[in-house]
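Hey,
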Amino acid sequence: MRFLKPYWHWATLAPLLMVLEVAMDLMQPRLIERIVDVGIAQQDMQIVINTGLLMVGYALIGAVGGTGCSIFATLAGLGFGADLRETLFKKVESLSFGNLDELETGQLVTRLTNDVTQMEQMVRMMLVMLIRAPFTLIGSLILAITTSPSLSFILVALMPVVLAVVLFVIRRAYPLFLGIQRRLDDLNTVMQENLSGVRVVKAFVRADYEEDRFRATNADLMQQTVHAARTIAVTMPVMIMTLNLGVIATLWFGGVRVTVGDMQVGQIIAFTNYLMRTLMSLMFVSMMVMRLARAQASSDRIQEVLDSKPYVQNRPDARPALDAQGRVAFEGVTFSYGQDGQDAVLKDLSFVAEPGQTVALLGATGSGKSSLVHLIPRFYDVSHGRITLDGVDVRDVDKTALRRNIGIALQESVLFSGTIRDNIRYGRPEATDEEVEAAAKAAQAHDFILEFPEGYDSVVGQRGVNLSGGQKQRIAIARALVTQPAVLILDDSTSSVDVETETKIQDALVELMANRTSFVIAQRISTVLTADKILVLDDGQVVAEGTHRELLETSPVYRDIYDSQLGNGVETNVAA
């Protein structure tokens, strides 16, 4: 209702105009009765003509009401859908990484599109049919009884049959429609994975496998939809059969009464009209209820997202601003992805990164390097212990203020549709062209950008499809640098560039990040040789800490990594 409230004037006018159309429709059988029983019976053409013209006038008034109702219902429904979709999108944007880990991309796409469309159509239908069907039902029932009380027993006999069918279908339809929406989730997930990973599919010649997977998911959706359709399919035939039985009974019993002189032909025609309208209204009600059942399934799924509370939230007294210098301290930090705190991926970490220091993180895949750096900007919150920035617990700082002091180039370089310039200043839209170019030069991206025909105004394809992996990584680094952060995080963000380019990036960072703190995750040990502090992680714990030379002497784990990549049994000149 709160999403419909801004459109209350349209939502009010639509039902009122529908009442006008229903009233005009309900007058028609009575006018037909007058034509037959008075005009034709008395052979008075003037009554026939006048009543016929009156019917045309009522029909035109009803058409105006119906057209206006449809227009205003559409305006209200589309506005409702647009606002709901926007609110849902904003909610998704506000969720934490932990929430998004649970709500898969395919599910969210379905909820933002198909589920919202179901709700939008439901609102439009309700504003039209919620008035038309009940008012027509009640009005036709009353007028049928007043037209011929002696034939009313037909309605009493038929209506329970119709209601029983409607209740049966409603009870069966809801879980089936919920299943359809869930299978749409699965279908969207398969589609999303294939579209984003199409190069991998082709590279490994797995198109046949993916087609089979899509075919199976698509067939499952079809089967569930067919099951729902079969359940609903019984409704219309039963309704039509009941309607026809009612007409037959009316003609039979009414005909007998006409024969003996207790009724007139016009009464039978009028009663038959009202009977048909009554049962047709019940049919519309059943259709509306079935649509409501499907909309209810979509509504529950949307409500699940709207009710989701971000796992990472600002505290009531959070600091609205922070001018950070860059001192980062981990104090007994333990972290688990599960909300129950089990299966910790980081265990009792404690270390300090002083302003201006470069801290390198080394370790095997799964040792917790990315998890560690994701805790600094509060993509996740620690399970135990605390992380401080300049002595302030990061949980005591507004998330926006905290993240404005942190620049990050993630492991996967994600670019957005738009120009290269817009992508670089994505985190700081007010950055000048000079600042954008300076960041690009530091990230060793300036030269290749100028090779494009439009330079910095060249359009990046969806997800940077027209750029190489190394080019995307360098633009991502420039995007992090242009924010002028107090803390810079490079999460294995130079893995796709060559060693020479990586060295140039490191040299540029030395000057650019003076008095700023840098966290560097790297697979190549050559990347971290000159770091002020190297942390070696294993199974979520810091097993060694120090400079390159210190670790060569004190850490067997570090020595093994070094020898496997650079050592070969020969001492390497670190400066070189």
